[in-house]
Amino acid sequence: MVKKYNYRPGREKKSRTIKKVQHRHPSEYLNDLEEWQRYQYDPGHYLGGNIHPQLKYASGTKAGKYFAALCLMLGVISGIGTVFTFIEGVGNILALLMTLLFISVGLTCFGGSKE
Q1: Hey, which of 15, 51, 56, 109 would disulfide with 68, CB 3.0 to 4.6 Å?
Q2: pTM above 0.70, yes or no
Q3: Using CA atoms, how far apart are residues 77 and 102, in angstroms rounded to an integer?
Q4: Which residue ranges does UniProt annotate as crossing the membrane (predicted)?
Q5: CA distance 73 to 70
Q6: Who contacts 31 (Cβ-Cβ below 8 Å, separation ≥6)?
Q7: How many of the other CB atoms lie within 10 Å of CB of 71?
Q8: Mind listing the pLDDT tens digit of every residue in the chain (115 residues)?
C-alpha cells in the first residue's frame, strides 16, 4: 500500500498567508493617527475614553491656542451682548447658550491633554 501525500515528503508545508508587520512610529501622534485609521468605522472603539488624535493634540499646537483664544473672545463678546439684552428685558436664551458653548470650548482647548 502506497501512502499518498498532499505535498512532497520531507518538506514542511508552508502557509500562504502574509503576516503584516506592525511598524511603530517614533511619534506618538502618528501612532494614534494610525490607530484611528484602523478603527474609524468601529463605533465602539472611541466610547471608552479613547480620544481622536486631532482633539487630543490640538491644544499643544500654535493653531490650537489661537483657536482657543478665538473661542474665548467670541464667548466674551457674545456674553456682553447677551447681558445687555437681558438688562433691556428682551433676553435671548439661544444667545446665552451660544455664549456658554464658546466659553466652554475655549477653556477646554486651553486645558491641554488629558493624559
Answers
A1: 109
A2: no
A3: 10
A4: 66-87, 93-112
A5: 5
A6: 24, 25
A7: 20
A8: 666 656 555 555 555 555 565 667 788 888 888 888 888 888 777 777 777 777 777 666 787 788 888 888 888 888 888 888 888 777 778 888 888 888 887 777 776 555 4
